[in-house]
Amino acid sequence: MYGKGILKGLGVTWKRFWNTYLEDISWLLSGKKRYFTEEGVKHRASKHARGIFTVQYPEERLILPEEFRYVPFLVYDEGEGGKKEVRCTSCGICAKVCPPQCIWIVRSNDPNTGRPIPEPTEFYIDMDICMNCGFCAEYCPFDAIKMDHDFEIASYGRNVYNLEKLLKPASYYASIRPENYAREEEARKAKEAAKAAKTAAKPAA
Ligand code: SF4
Ligand code: SF4
Predict the structure, then answer these.
(1) For atom 4 of ligand 2, which residue has the closest CA?
(2) 100 pocket-lining for ligand 2 (C-beta < 6 Å)
(3) Are 107 and 120 in contact (CB under 8 A)?
(4) Which of 68, 96, 103, 150 to mutate to test the pocket of ligand 2 (most atoms within 8 A of CB)?
(5) Per residue of the chain (205 residues), what is the pLDDT tens digit?
(6) Dihedral angle computed from the Cα positions of residues 12, 16, 17 and 21, in that order, rounded to the nearest 10 degrees
């Protein structure tokens, strides 16, 4: 029958429309807040949502899953006296695997010997070109580059991030990706323990 699809579509719209009010009333009666609360947003983003399921951004925000990824950032550990211990060794693997080639790294050199030092003196990522693939974070052997949850980076200018803008503490990484962080720390500790055991087992020269 002609128009059957249209009627079906309108039926879905009407169902959503009325269910929105029915849900609102049921939340009101139970004394809970369906809008502008974490509980309400969580419910509307779930499969149990009836009626309206969109959020009123930016006043309301969806709760991001741990694996959500936007642009990359560089991780540093907080050393003694708050010293930034940058994990990046400027090995260049991330720049090599980056599909749109939007990473530039300049390795540090010892001013006296001219020999390379495993840390970056400059690090740039063109966020306007980055396609958020996460390859850089996947391939980095030092857990030095990770994918951020911050997606509000729109600006009128060009989004080329330098080292200063890219660096974020490991505690920030732990806050957005707690499970990944815990797993990596566990692996790091196991590796260090194995290394220490190997050194201890070596016969003294
Ligand atoms: S972020 Fe990782 S892969 Fe990229 S240069 Fe630094 S250590 Fe190498
Ligand atoms: S997320 Fe992908 S596109 Fe963006 S910098 Fe990393 S490798 Fe390049």
Answers:
(1) 130
(2) yes
(3) yes
(4) 103
(5) 688 999 999 999 999 999 999 999 999 999 999 999 999 999 999 999 999 999 999 999 998 999 999 999 999 999 888 899 999 999 999 999 999 999 999 999 998 998 999 999 999 999 999 999 999 999 999 999 999 999 999 999 999 999 999 999 999 999 999 999 999 999 999 999 999 999 888 876 5
(6) 150
| Domain, as residue range, for 27 | 7-63
Residue 205 lies in a domain: no
Statement to judge: residues 109 and 185 lie in one domain: yes
Residue 160 in any domain: the answer is yes
Measured distance CA(80)–CA(84) in Å, rounded: 9
Amino acid in position 146: K
Residue matched to tokens 């269910």: 19
Distance 83 CA to ligand 1 centre (A): 20
Residues 51, 100, single domain; the answer is: no
Q: Do 96 and 179 share a domain, yes or no? A: yes
Residues 150 and 190 in one domain: yes
Per the structure block, which two tokens stand in for 126?
């063109």
Domain count, the chain: 2
**Does 180 share its domain with 140?**
yes
